[in-house]
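Entry type: protein chain
Record version: 2
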Amino acid sequence: MRATSHGRTSDRIAIDSVIPQEETLHAATPHDESPPSQAAELEHIFQRYHGQVFATAYRITGSAADAEDVLQTVFLRLLRRRDAVDLSPGPASYLHRAAVNASLDLLRSRARKRPLPLDEIELPARPGDDPDRRQRDREIRRCLRQAIIGLSPKSAEVFSLRFLEGMPNREIAGLTRSSQTAIGVMLHRARQRVKKDFASCIGGLDHV
């Protein structure tokens, strides 16, 4: 079952709409905590952060359906690996990074199987929109995503956190346990690579 309706995440939704209840109870069996209490903790985290996870995934994938799939993936992974996940700095940082990486994984998986169809990138229609302009916008977004997933996994993550999510270098360094200098160098190289691949993709479109 989808976790959202038409891309909306503002209404309160239950985690059971994303992860079946039997899976929740089966996975939540730590030595020092009963299944209901851990399930309640996960429900609390889900209610507080599912909107953030969905929004992050939507910005990267450009698709409400894909963002819902990412939402399910992120919380299912958290459920299955709860004992191994350190949430002491706060769930927001972990979930933000998890959403970015799950979104990139989804795009890479799709790119390996087949090119991303233009009509899968959702852009809201506006009154007076020129169909040719909307088609061009879709192509531009496809080229950008294609350029990003062409980076190494770490570079794609850092690039997305900085330029798609607007996270400062200092926070990225703390989140990825890297130095700010290393993040700066990685971003510079990633930006140059993305610009080159993006320009090549756009240039190819201009000659179609």
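Comment: The helical segments are 21-27, 35-61, 64-80, 91-113, 131-149, 153-164, 169-176, 180-206.
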